[in-house]
Design brief:
The complex is a heterodimer of chains A (116) and B (112).
Chain A (H helix, E strand, L loop, with lengths): L2 E3 L4 E5 L4 E3 L2 E3 L6 E7 L6 E7 L7 E2 L2 E6 L4 E6 L8 E11 L2 E6 L3 E6 L1
Parallel strand pairs in A: 2-12
Antiparallel strand pairs in A: 1-4, 3-9, 5-6, 5-10, 7-8, 8-9, 10-11, 10-12
Chain B lengths: L3 E4 L2 E4 L5 E7 L5 E7 L5 E9 L2 E4 L7 E2 L9 E3 L8 E8 L7 E2 L3 E5 L1
Parallel strand pairs in B: 2-11
Antiparallel strand pairs in B: 1-3, 3-8, 4-5, 4-9, 5-6, 7-8, 9-10, 9-11
The chains are: A mainly beta (116), B mainly beta (112).
Chain lengths: 116, 112
């Protein structure tokens, strides 16, 4: 079975500090995509960053970067210079073909609180 | 922001009523999805569609039904609402394979 595990239900970080959210996954597929999504309280879920599994270079988007370790099936998200607006639920996900259909599988989420 | 819209955003309805949650996207995406999410919890896929007249049940069993008569529209219907249906329902869409999945703002359903 394909799974995504986020082992940190809740985290907090001081404003301007750096925080890393963990994500591991399990799949027998070789081609897939990995995502981090952010869901602010009562607001729309939006994409933070996306990584193609065939690319060795880690994706970066401004203050957000990932540490993709394919062999270890690990995909952590690093947020630098944390801001109050980063407070949200963060979901790790991967998308892949399985049984002839394309599916996105989400982790259980990490609630991040940025402290002033 | 993504061009995917859900209505109503919030709904309180009595047990036994029929409800339809609307979802529309203007991005021309072929794939659409419905997820169920309890507050602060994980997402569960309940329905998906890969195109017009194509619908499939997701990983979580649901008493709801969906239809996909037009590419841009993917409504979800509950024929007889029950308190156990109280949850947030997220509509999403994507194009092709491996691409970003975009979410609507969600519909919060409370059945009393």
């Amino acid at each position: 079975a394909q799974t995504v595990t986020q082992s940190q239900p809740e985290m907090s970080v001081q404003e301007a500090e750096t925080v890393t959210l963990s994500c591991t996954y399990d799949t027998s597929e070789n081609n897939y995509y990995l995502f981090w999504y952010k869901q602010p309280p009562s607001r729309q879920m939006i994409l933070v960053i996306r990584q193609e599994a065939y690319k060795q270079q880690n994706a970066t988007e401004n203050r957000f970067s990932v540490n993709f370790q394919k062999a270890a099936k690990s995909f952590s998200l690093k947020i630098s210079d944390s801001q109050l607006g980063d407070t949200a639920m963060y979901f790790c996900a991967f998308g892949t073909f399985t049984s002839g259909t394309y599916k996105y599988i989400f982790g259980t989420g990490t609630r991040l609180k940025v402290l002033a | 922001e993504a061009d995917i819209y859900q209505t109503p955003r919030y709904l309180v309805i009595g047990t036994g009523k029929k409800i339809t949650l609307e979802c529309s996207q203007t991005m021309g995406h072929d794939k659409m999805y419905w997820y169920q999410q309890d507050p602060g919890m994980e997402l569960h896929l309940i329905h998906y569609s890969y195109g017009v007249n194509s619908t499939e049940k997701g990983d979580l069993s649901s008493e709801s039904t969906v239809s996909r008569i037009r590419t841009e529209h993917f409504p979800l219907t509950l024929e007889s609402a029950r308190p156990s249906h109280t949850s947030q329902y997220l509509c999403a869409s994507s194009k092709g394979s491996g691409n970003t999945i975009y979410f609507g703002e969600g519909s919060w359903l409370t059945v009393v």
